[in-house]
Amino acid sequence: MPERAEQRVSEGPFLVVGLGNPGPGYAGNRHNVGAMVLDELAARAGLKLSPGKGARARAVAGEGRLAGRRVVLARPLTYMNESGGPVRGLLDYHHLPVDDLVVVHDELDIPFSAVRLKRGGGEGGHNGLRSITRSTGTKDYLRVRVGIGRPPGRQDAADYVLKDFSAVERKELELLVAEAADAVEALVARGLEAAQNEVHART
Questions:
Q1: Are strands 50-51 and 59-66 parallel, antiparallel or unpaired?
Q2: pLDDT at site 52
């Protein structure tokens, strides 16, 4: 049974969503690292993301192939706490089950520069994940968790995620985004367990 489930997960197509807030004022924020990874994936796949119509109008998306698998890459145009609506609209339009949803997001509970993969679990106070859980009715979707670390001292977590990466972090940010994009490719190509074994040993 586990082998059959793993094979089903690896067949695709997948909806890969990178979370962030819209507009240039948020572009360099820690909270936007999921959107940064999504843009890197679009570049690798040679996809130009464009807004859809109707229920898909609140996201930019493109269809193509990534790591040999069919994918829809998407970035919501809404604020983080409203990410669920665009995600639900894309799942419905492409007739995809939530099992084939991959959400790339920033993660406070993981050290900066580490990447972790999982399916399901709590949202850890992440408003984007909370919104997606509400809109899909389940927490059982795939997550690519991009570590941004905890805020220093007594800095509020909500303020911390809405600040740009520090000068020291920016020196490693390109590598972190690339490693997270590699993790997404491993996930869609080989399934969760194999990708976890590969990615978790590396970062």
A1: antiparallel
A2: 81
Selected residue with higher pLDDT from 153 and 144: 144
Looking at residue 34, its pLDDT comes to: 98
Output Rg (C-alpha) for the chain, integer angstroms.
Answer: 16
Residues that are catalytic = 31
Give the pLDDT mean for 104-133.
Answer: 94
Q: Mean pLDDT for the chain?
A: 92
Residue 155 pLDDT: 86
Task: Kindly report, residue by residue over 56-74, the tens digit of the pLDDT.
Answer: 779 999 999 999 999 999 9
> Which phi and psi angles does 95 have, rounded to 5°?
55, 50
Q: How many residues does this entry show for the chain? A: 203
Residues near 134 by Cβ (< 8 Å), separated by ≥ 6? 84
**3-class secondary structure per residue, the chain:** CHHHHHHHHHHCCEEEEECCCCCHHHCCEHHHHHHHHHHHHHHHHCCCCEECCHHHCCEEEEEEEECCEEEEEEEECCCHHHCHHHHHHHHHHCCCCHHHEEEEEEECCCCCCCEEEEECCCCCCCHHHHHHHHHHCCCCCEEEEEECCCCCCCCCHHHHHCCECCHHHHHHHHHHHHHHHHHHHHHHHHCHHHHHHHHHHHC
146, 104 contact by CB (below 8 A): yes
